[in-house]
């Protein structure tokens, strides 16, 4: 008998329907949802993160949403600690935890036994790069592009804190951070897992992405970003480097037109979705479900059956 506690996981690219499916499965299996979204963790970043509204949550408790100050950085290590505590809390109430989201590193932090403190710190290295960056802005990002282009592509060039950490990890271990964080199957899981992945034809996914971006703009994304800046939030804060936010900031600060910003949001989101699929497909434990192949209710039936057979 496997003594590990069950954890249902729903992954997939942005706009694939993970949040709605997690709510539906939680209703059917007496569960609670734990978000794995690196932007939804921040309070006040609602529209651009596609954070589920109270109505969309349908009374299902959601964890790891609005749990961080957008003026401060929430590290992956922080997320791992808080999210795992949430998993234990859900188990303590006799409920099924359902981890759902598209931030692969967050998902991996929960389901795999990764030690994010392993690489340690080198204060002298940090001081040297901080001084160099002050004298030569952009030099740290250029160095990361050379040493770890995969990690560099995931970061905004102004996100110096995360850029510095990636350089430090390479300095201390001799291995790119992207390789260390992407090794799904090198670590055991502390849970009894069942992972459901949502997919669909590329044309359908891209159409849904474009529709979502249009809906975010209609809902007031520009107003939301302006409000965050008016509150004094630093445009270079890690919380504002997410898709949608950084492009709108460039529009509001005159670096590009509104039309250019919208085009970039859609383009960058499509590229991000492609990277998400590449990331999640590396985990052979994932059972994939084609959203386009079934009516919504039947898709939920099949995913419910999968989780029941694997976990309950």
Describe the structure.
The protein has a six-stranded parallel β-sheet, with helices on both faces. α2 links the parallel β2 and β3. The protein has two domains: 234 residues, Rossmann fold (3-Layer(aba) Sandwich); 58 residues, Histone, subunit A, CATH 1.10.20.140. With 312 residues, it is α/β, with parallel strands linked by helices.
As for the CATH topology of the largest domain, it is: Rossmann fold
Rounded to an integer in angstroms, the radius of gyration calculated over CA atoms is 20 Å
What strand line-up does the widest sheet have?
3-2-4-1-5-6
Which overall shape is indicated by the principal axes computed on the Cα atoms? globular
CATH class of the largest domain: Alpha Beta
Q: Classify the secondary structure makeup into a structural class.
A: alpha/beta
Beta strands, count: 6
Name of the CATH superfamily of the largest domain? P-loop containing nucleotide triphosphate hydrolases
How do the helices and strands follow one another from N- to C-terminus? EHEHEHEHHHHHHEHHHHEH
Supply the CATH architecture of the largest domain.
3-Layer(aba) Sandwich
Any low-confidence stretches, pLDDT <50, length ≥5? Answer: 182-186
Instruction: Output the number of helix runs.
Output: 14
Which band does the percent of strand residues land in?
5-15%
Average per-residue pLDDT, rounded, comes to 91
The N- and C-terminal alpha carbons lie at a distance of 12 Å
User: How much helicity do the residues have?
Assistant: 40-55%
Query: Could you say how many structural domains there are in total?
Result: 2
Biggest sheet statistics: 6 strands, parallel
